[in-house]
Structure formats: structure tokens, C-alpha cells
Write a structure and sequence with these properties.
Blueprint: H1 2-20, E1 23-24, H2 26-36, H3 38-53, E2 64-80, E3 96-117, H4 121-187, H5 193-228, E4 237-238, H6 247-255, H7 262-282, E5 288-301, E6 317-330, H8 338-404, H9 410-445
Parallel strand pairs: 1-4
Antiparallel strand pairs: 2-3, 3-5, 5-6
Length: about 450
């Protein structure tokens, strides 16, 4: 009765611990990675920068307006002497002294400049910036795809180790039951002390293996927490259910890969950017027409001064208002050939980009074929391992019956147990290897972010 109550308590406690650990579904893991992963956040910021660069404020289509203002102040003390000069009365001519002669100057100007035509270089450069923005979106998508693949790799590693842990716990429980059985049998004289020692050795080995798996599982969970940018000690369980996409669907994805693969799409964007580079370079052959306008205000307050002997002229205030309009045409009829060189180099860069696109298409097609072959092979191995588990499970159950009847030794029973343990862990490994191979194929087809996993 006491043993029954203890068992119920342990089961209840285990259920409570499991309930306290939330199950982190694949969908939740994807959402958290998209929201918080550092690499994805950086990629999003890069897209924002490219969007700013592609805006009207960076296009060169808007005029420039410059305002300037200035003020000057001057305080002058002066003495004008007339040596050797005399008044009509015969008296020496008196000096003219001016103290605190203040003068001020104030000015302000608004200058407006606008390029009316620049050989269409501004137009094509603006279109180029738009394509660079779209390229940055593709680069961000590539970062997201790589992060998702990395996240699922760690997520499935956590799932695999979780299943291995459960398998190892069952193996340990069976080995502990063997000790109890061996001790009872020894008490009734049905076996020797050696059977007890063998069972204890197996319990020790199973315990060590379980500790190693638990450590690996804890490390894998911390790795996943880093990718999801959450507390390193966050506790959670993962979903160990795996669904595979039908082959006919994968073949359909592969047929559309040339228009969906992110690497190919990036080469196409770079090709468009190189095409605009050629047109921007050709704009150097055409003239530039500019408009300008300015409006200015000046106030000049001059100090008193003396020009005619014996007379002091008072200071004056002068205010000026100035409005100016202008147009200019600049045509670089010959620039030493630099424009021609830029055009030729831009065309060569375009040709190189075309070659690169063909190379990427060929490599993507090769990688897809290889990925499909690897995936199908992994899936076959997984199906074989599933059947192998069933075979070893039947063999273990039969061996257990024979062992309990005393018809086989503990060593033979242990071997059947190890065979089942290896079959189960190999099946777990094959299952998640096959799923990761499927994800890699989906990434190559450009569908990784579009399917439910």
C-alpha cells in the first residue's frame, strides 16, 4: 500500500513538472525567431536603410535651399591731425577727434538651386536605388531562411535528445528491475551473486548514459534560447511529431525553383542594377541644365567720418534688397575619355553578372537534385529504422519472457535490450535527419517560409 502511494505521488509530481514546462511548438519557435533573433533584426535594419536610400529625399530630384546670415560690429576711436596747417586767423588747425564711432553690418541670403536636367543620370540612379532596396529585401529573406534552418536544426536536436532521454529512462528502469529480480532470485538460491553484479553494472552504465543525454539536452536548449533571444535558462518542451511533405508537392516546388530561389533572384536584381549603371554612366555624354535663385537683405550702418577739413559727416544707414534668378547649361564636350571608360566597364560588369547568373542557376539545380536524392535516401533509412524498432521490440519482449523463465542468461537479455535501445535512437536520428534534409530542399526551392512544418 505504501509503495502504491509512493508511485502515485511520483507520477503526480512528474505530471506537475511537465505541466509547468510549456510546450514550444514549431510555429511559436518560428514566430519568436522572426521577432527577436539578432541576425534577423540586423537584416531588417539593413532593409530600412536601403528603403531610406531609395526615397525621394535621396533621389536628387528635390531642390536645395541654403540660408546664410551674418552680422559685424565695429567700434573705432580716431584722431585726425593737420601738422603745419593753420586756420585763416593764423591759429594752428585743430585736430578732429572721433570717439566711439560705431558701425554695424547685417546680411541674410536665401539661395535656391535646382538641377533641371542632368543627362538622365538622376533618373536611372533613382531606379537603381529602388532595385538595391529590393535586393536588400532578398538579402534579408536569405538571412531569415538561414536562421530558420539553423533554428530548426537546433529545435530538432532538442526533440531528438528528448526522445533519446525517454528511451534511456526506460532502459534504466528495466535495468533497475533486473537488480530487484536478481536479488530475489539470489535469496531463493536460483542464481548467483554474479547476476546481481551484472545488473548493477548495467544500471551504472545506463545512469551515466542518461546523465550524458540530459547534459546534451540542456546544452541544446540553451543553444535554442540563444537563437530565439530569450533567457538562457528558459524551460520548455518541444514537439516531437514530424510530418513529411508528399513527394509530388516537393517535385512541384522544384519545378518552380528558378523563379523562387533567393540566390537566383538576387543575381537577377544585381543584373538590373548593372543595367542601370550603364545608363548612369552614359549620362556623362549629355549636358546639365540648372536653375538658381537668390534673395538677399543687407543693412549697413556706417560710423561718422571726416573728409572735408574741419567737418565731420554723420553716419549713414543703407538697406539693400536683392533678388536674382539664373540658369546655366554645362556640357562636358570632352572629359579625356573617362565617361567612355566608365561605360565600357559597366558593360563588362553586366556581362559578368550574366555569367554569374548562369552559374548560380546551374549550381542551384545541382544542389536541388542532390538535396532531393539525400532526402529520399534519408526517408528510406527512416522507414527501415521504424521497421527495425518493431523487430527489436518483438525480440526484446520475447527475450524478456525467456529471461523471466530462466531460459536465457542476463547477458543475452542485456544484448536484446541494447539492440532495442540502439534501434530506437537510430530511428530518432534518422527521423530528424530526414526532416532537416527536407527543409534544406525547401530552402533551395524558395518555399521554406511558405509551407507549414
Amino acid at each position: 500500500m505504501v509503495k502504491f502511494r509512493l508511485t502515485c505521488f511520483l507520477l503526480s509530481f512528474s505530471a506537475l513538472v511537465v505541466a509547468q514546462e510549456n510546450v514550444l511548438s514549431k510555429e511559436e519557435a518560428v514566430a519568436k525567431a522572426l521577432e527577436s533573433n539578432f541576425g534577423i533584426e540586423i537584416a531588417k535594419n539593413q532593409v530600412d536603410i536601403a528603403e531610406n536610400n531609395a526615397g525621394i529625399l535621396n533621389s536628387g530630384y528635390l531642390p536645395t535651399l541654403t540660408g546664410t546670415a551674418g552680422a559685424n560690429y565695429n567700434n573705432l576711436d580716431s584722431t585726425t591731425e593737420y601738422p603745419g596747417q593753420f586756420e585763416d586767423s593764423g591759429e594752428p588747425r585743430a585736430d578732429i577727434v572721433i570717439d566711439d564711432a560705431e558701425s554695424q553690418t547685417y546680411s541674410s541670403t536665401l539661395q535656391l538651386n535646382y538641377t533641371l536636367f542632368d543627362g538622365l543620370g538622376r533618373l536611372y540612379n533613382y531606379k537603381k536605388l529602388k532595385e538595391q532596396y529590393r535586393l536588400s529585401e532578398l538579402q534579408a529573406r536569405e538571412t531569415i531562411e538561414n536562421t530558420m534552418l539553423q533554428m530548426f536544426s537546433v529545435y530538432f536536436e532538442v526533440a531528438r535528445l528528448t526522445e533519446n532521454k525517454n528511451v534511456q529512462e526506460k532502459a534504466l528502469e528495466i535495468s533497475k528491475q533486473r537488480i530487484t529480480r536478481a536479488e530475489y532470485s539470489f535469496e531463493y538460491g536460483q542464481n548467483t551473486k554474479l547476476d546481481i553484479l551484472n545488473a548493477q553494472v548495467d544500471v551504472t552504465n545506463d545512469s551515466i548514459n542518461l546523465l550524458n543525454i540530459e547534459q546534451q539536452l540542456a546544452n541544446a536548449k540553451r543553444d535554442l534560447n540563444v537563437i530565439l533571444n530569450q533567457d538562457l535558462n528558459e524551460k520548455f518542451l518541444v514537439d516531437t511529431l514530424i510530418n513529411f511533405i508528399p513527394r509530388i508537392k516537393l517535385v512541384e516546388y522544384m519545378e518552380k525553383a528558378m523563379s523562387n530561389n533567393v540566390a537566383i533572384l538576387q543575381t537577377e536584381k544585381n543584373l538590373q542594377i548593372n543595367e542601370y549603371d550603364i545608363k548612369v554612366s552614359k549620362s556623362g555624354y549629355l549636358p546639365t541644365i540648372g536653375l538658381s535663385g537668390s534673395y538677399g537683405w543687407n543693412l549697413n550702418q556706417s560710423a561718422p567720418s571726416s573728409f572735408i577739413p574741419g567737418q565731420i559727416f554723420p553716419g549713414t544707414n543703407r538697406t539693400n534688397y536683392n533678388l536674382a534668378l539664373g540658369a546655366s547649361l554645362t556640357w562636358n564636350l570632352f572629359d579625356g575619355g573617362s565617361t567612355t571608360v566608365r561605360v565600357k566597364n559597366a558593360k563588362i560588369a553586366y556581362e559578368n553578372q550574366e555569367l554569374l547568373k548562369k552559374q548560380v542557376e546551374l549550381e542551384v539545380n545541382r544542389d536541388m537534385q542532390n538535396a532531393m536524392a539525400i532526402y529520399e535516401n534519408m526517408l528510406k533509412i527512416y522507414r527501415i529504422q521504424e521497421q527495425n524498432v518493431i523487430t527489436n521490440q518483438n525480440n526484446f519482449e520475447r527475450s524478456k519472457e525467456q529471461f523471466e523463465l530462466g531460459r536465457i542468461t542476463s547477458i543475452e537479455f542485456r544484448q536484446a535490450q541494447i539492440n532495442l535501445l540502439n534501434a530506437q535512437t537510430n530511428k530518432n536520428l534518422a527521423k530528424y535527419d530526414a526532416k532537416l534534409a527536407e527543409l534544406q530542399l525547401l530552402q533551395l526551392t524558395g518555399q521554406l517560409l511558405n509551407v507549414e512544418l
